[in-house]
TrEMBL record:
Residues 20-393 form the Sulfatase N-terminal domain. InterPro entries: Alkaline_phosphatase_core_sf, ARSB, Sulfatase_N. This is Arsb protein. Keywords: Calcium, Glycoprotein, Metal-binding, Signal. The gene is Arsb. It comes from Symbiodinium pilosum. Gene3D superfamilies: 3.30.1120.10, Alkaline Phosphatase, subunit A.
């Protein structure tokens, strides 16, 4: 209710305008230094000039100039927690502070014993439907899959076209190790591309979408590239929206796979980028991964431009609010991103890991605020409260309150000591943004290891990837560093085999060294503005906040998820209480039945109590050698052809 204390003038846009259409754009692993606006004030050194010449985001930059740049937008340090936070309206520490395998299940906890958002929380799309919105989502989900309630359909989205996991292959739509960073219970044999609408719910089945045949095409927008499929779905939703019913505005959640690994992009975009860099006075990019990442950024920017043009052609743009953020900072292990000039990146609590590119734009932004910046603190969870306020619906989650009452009353669950669901702790931000008055002024719980109390941040414990990046990152120096086994290897928090840790080096000390770990112990006090000594106070604040950390036992990686996926054309999806979820599948040939039976037998054997420990031990033994001998990146000669790095990628999430 803090917005009621703002000047009455600030409320005028809500009174004068109808409920806005909302295009919520979520980028994946987007580096701070990879957005053009953040390169505008580049210095005069050759490296800074080259860095500026390499970053091309003209559509994003134009939307920022027409909107409001959000300078202090914070997320969690990895993807699934942030996505769960946005969808549920809770801080990540109160909903899902881990990246669990989507196949996880804890038989003793029917509410929270799965990956992603607990079963009985109300999603933002459910709330907006109560406000009359038509709700659609395209792209990455990564907020749970185990039951129908965990799916986008169960969270209130009328339609969805996308994938459930942390990542998949952009061409094959498969769950290969280089995409997910895991050897899962299904031995990475499944695909991950699904959809639901009024008449269908289940795997994407058309041959073109599942094909990788267009991978070698020379055209700039080949039809089987995953982001092309997503973009076409977004454009279809916009063009088909019924604008004759203003009481039913559009809520479209556009969740890019870009810029997450594996780094894959149509060939033509590499040449486009080379041309733009040359026209900007830059040299050819000298890192294979930096080249791929920059080209993928260019593709994402163009896709956003097409979506905005579709809104304008449909005459929806003038009453549209566009919200943009990344799910975390850019990864500075071998994944092509740069958070220059911020410290750190994905997987840590430094500014480069949790302070993200973010902005709002569209015709709904008041004219007097366009082109401005907002320095107030925003958490990704705050979009829940912001959008419910704009939709005119209450923010309270009655579904989780009922579940809590059940948990308290149920003796079996109570004996298990299962956690109650945390209430929505989102703070509406729209009035703060348009009035330029901060809404979040108290301490903000970033993770179990960090708390922000502006302008101070306390960071504790071991923090991987604790490095500042230069204007050009990654580069030939990082290539040589990897070759010399000095890192940066990917952090091993989410490198797993059957849910067990996968070591990236021979010893814990060597892991820390090659993943660029700094141990803050009881606390590193970061002053993001002015120096002051508040260490003791913030340590006590973090200790108190951690008492409310929501981290239930999500269970083990279950082969039953694979068996249901096999039934559904070997495609991931809900596997608990899911018989009524799927539309009828086409009959399988005798050969397909035989092959499925053979794969089922292999997976059951691999997941058996005798074989599983042996497989885990074997993979863990060879893992350090595999990582040590992997060709993560390559220093490109000026004359290198871009095609040589089309298949470059890394093996982490």
């Amino acid at each position: 209710m803090a917005f009621l204390t703002l000047p009455l003038l600030a409320l005028t846009p809500l009174v004068a305008q109808a409920k806005p259409h909302v295009l919520f754009i979520l980028a994946d692993d987007y580096g701070w230094g990879n957005m053009g606006v953040h390169r505008r004030s580049a210095g005069s050194t050759p490296e800074e000039k080259q860095g500026k010449a390499e970053v091309h985001t003209p559509n994003i930059d134009a939307l920022i100039d027409e909107g409001i740049l959000l300078e202090r937008h914070y997320t969690y340090k990895i993807c699934s927690p942030t996505r769960s936070s946005i969808q549920s309206g809770r801080l990540a520490v109160h909903v899902n502070p881990v990246n669990s395998a989507v196949t996880s299940r804890n038989y003793n906890d029917p509410v929270s014993g799965y990956a992603g958002i607990p079963r009985n929380m109300t999603g933002i799309a459910e709330k907006l439907r109560d406000g009359g919105y038509r709700t659609h989502i395209v792209g990455k989900w990564d907020a749970g899959m185990a039951t129908p309630e965990h799916s986008p359909k169960g969270r209130g989205y009328e339609t969805w076209y996308g994938y459930y996991q942390h990542a998949n292959d952009y061409w094959h739509k498969s769950t290969v190790f280089m995409a997910t960073g895991e050897i899962d219970a299904c031995l990475n044999r499944m695909k991950d591309l699904s959809m639901h609408n009024e008449t269908y719910s289940g795997p994407v089945r058309d041959a073109i979408s599942l094909s990788a045949a267009c991978q070698e095409d020379e055209e700039s927008d080949p039809g089987c590239y995953e982001e092309h499929l997503f973009k076409e779905q977004v454009l279809k939703i916009i063009r088909n929206h019924d604008t004759a019913k203003p009481e039913n505005p559009l809520f479209l959640f556009y969740s890019f796979h870009l810029l997450h690994t594996p780094l894959q992009v149509p060939k033509a975009w590499l040449e486009k980028l080379h041309k733009l860099v040359a026209e900007a006075g830059g040299k050819r990019i000298d890192s294979g991964l930096r080249l791929l990442y920059a080209a993928m950024t260019l593709y994402m920017d163009a896709a956003i431009g097409e979506a905005v043009n579709a809104l304008k052609e449909k005459k929806m743009y003038d009453n549209t609010l566009i919200i943009f953020t990344s799910d975390n900072g850019g990864p500075i292990y071998p994944a092509g991103a740069s958070n220059y000039p911020l410290r750190g990146g994905k997987y840590n609590d430094w500014e480069g890991g949790v302070r993200t590119n973010a902005w709002v734009s569209g015709g709904f932004v008041p004219a007097q605020r366009r082109g401005a910046k907002f320095d107030g603190i925003i958490n990704a969870a705050d979009w829940y409260g912001t959008l419910t306020e704009l939709a005119g619906v209450e923010m309270v989650d009655h579904k989780s309150e009922k579940a809590n009452a059940f948990l308290k009353a149920n003796a079996f669950l109570k004996e298990k000591g299962l956690p109650l669901l945390h209430p929505v702790d989102s703070i509406p931000q729209w009035q703060a943004i348009i009035s330029n008055a901060p809404a979040r002024t108290g301490p903000m719980h970033l993770s179990s290891q960090a708390v922000l109390q502006w302008p101070y941040k306390l960071v504790t414990g071991k923090q991987a990837m604790s490095a500042w990046q230069g204007p050009l990152y990654p580069n030939c120096s990082t290539v040589h560093s990897l070759e010399d086994r000095n890192g940066p290897l990917p952090p091993q928090q989410d490198m797993k085999v059957f849910g067990e840790p996968l070591p990236v080096a021979e010893t814990p000390a060597e892991v820390d060294r090659q993943t660029w770990v700094i141990d803050c112990g009881a606390g590193c006090l970061v002053n993001v503005e002015d120096y002051a000594k508040l260490l003791k106070s913030l340590q006590e604040t973090l200790e108190s906040m951690n008492k409310e950390l929501f981290n239930p036992d999500r269970g083990l990686d279950r082969v039953e998820a694979c068996e249901v996926a096999i039934e559904q054309s070997r495609t991931f999806g809900p596997f608990v209480d899911s018989k009524e979820f799927y539309s009828p599948a086409p009959p399988k040939t005798l050969l397909e039945q035989v092959e499925d039976a053979a794969l089922t037998a292999v997976l059951r054997k691999a997941n058996s109590q005798t074989a599983k420990p042996l497989l885990i031990a074997a993979v863990q033994t060879i893992s350090p050698k595999v990582f040590a001998n992997s060709a993560w990146d390559k220093c490109l000669a000026p004359e290198s052809e871009p095609q040589s790095f089309l298949d470059a990628g890394i093996v982490t999430v």
